[in-house]
Design brief:
11% of the residues lie in helices and 46% in strands. By secondary structure, the protein is mostly beta strands.
Length: 170
């Protein structure tokens, strides 16, 4: 089966994930913006590679895995240092057989929310940002209140399956 996304060697690839839609941009979330990484440093110059959005995602609740890449020396040097927006203690995790820095973050503003599990990897001389994002709007602010398309637990399980589809081209 062909990958849903693949870069030339050395790079990153993602196997198809049932129940997701593949996008080549990051233009779906109010708080997440559309930069190559969830919290880019000033002057950062990367690019979005691929996003897998959970089917049913909407403005009430969405779940998405975003993968971006930067080849600039400053982004590669700072790649595995969590941003100031990270919460809790950063750790390490295995992503497709490659060691990654893992951290969490969250944000909220004007009834909107975002929570993310983020992974940062230096591979083949590039910095990769893998952000698993749950975002949306509190459903009770709508009149009448709206029902989210899936629960937070369902979104987390779906994001875990998306992360498991990531592998590296060598």
């Amino acid at each position: 089966m062909a990958d849903a996304f693949a870069e030339p060697v050395p790079g990153i690839a993602v196997r198809p994930v049932t129940g997701t839609t593949v996008h080549r941009d990051f233009k779906r979330s109010y708080l997440a913006m559309d930069a190559w990484t969830l919290y880019p440093a000033a002057g950062s110059a990367g690019r979005p590679l691929v996003a897998l959005a959970l089917d049913g995602s909407n403005d009430v609740t969405s779940a998405e895995m975003r993968i971006g890449r930067s080849d600039t020396a400053s982004d590669v040097q700072a790649c595995t240092t969590p941003p100031a927006e990270a919460t809790g203690t950063a750790g390490t995790a295995d992503v497709g057989g490659v060691r990654a820095t893992h951290f969490n973050s969250s944000d909220a503003a004007m009834s909107h929310y975002l929570s993310a599990d983020s992974y940062r990897v230096v591979h083949g001389g590039a910095c990769y940002a893998i952000d698993l994002i749950i975002a949306g709007t509190r459903p009770e602010v709508y009149d009448p209140p709206r029902t989210p398309p899936f629960t937070q637990d369902q979104a987390k399980a779906a994001l875990a399956s998306m992360l498991a589809a990531v592998h590296w081209t060598h």
